[in-house]
Amino acid sequence: MSLENAAVISSCSRWPLIIDPQLQGSIWIRGKEGENLTTISINQNKWLQTLTQAISLGKSVLIEGIQQDIDATLDPLLQRAIIKKGKTTIL
């Protein structure tokens, strides 16, 4: 089952949402992305600035601690409303 999930995550055209109570997916993503991963918690200070900067640098982002209600400021990201200007990606 884990191998199937990893294959789907690696080859999907959309950004995956992982419900991961045992943290297996989180560990796998951290190992797969390595230095290119920026981890953000919604509860940390200036999380939106960190998210915007990571996206503009082309890094992968892991957002942890999202509750049932998702913050409205994440809507453009979830709708993939991003703009690419040259090598820079803007949210």
Quick summary of this structure?
By secondary structure, the chain is an alpha+beta fold. It contains four helices and four strands, in the order ααβαβαββ.
Q: What's the topology here?
A:
Blueprint lengths: L1 H10 L12 H10 L3 E5 L5 H10 L3 E5 L10 H4 L4 E3 L2 E3 L1
Parallel strand pairs: 1-2
Antiparallel strand pairs: 3-4
Could you please describe the fold and organization of this structure?
With 91 residues, this protein is of the alpha+beta class. It has a single domain, classed as Rossmann fold, CATH 3.40.50. It contains 4 helices and 4 strands. The chain has a two-stranded parallel sheet. A two-stranded antiparallel ribbon has the order 3-4. Strand 3 and strand 4 form a beta hairpin. The longest helix is centred in the first third of the chain and has 10 residues. The model has no long low-confidence stretch (mean pLDDT 82).
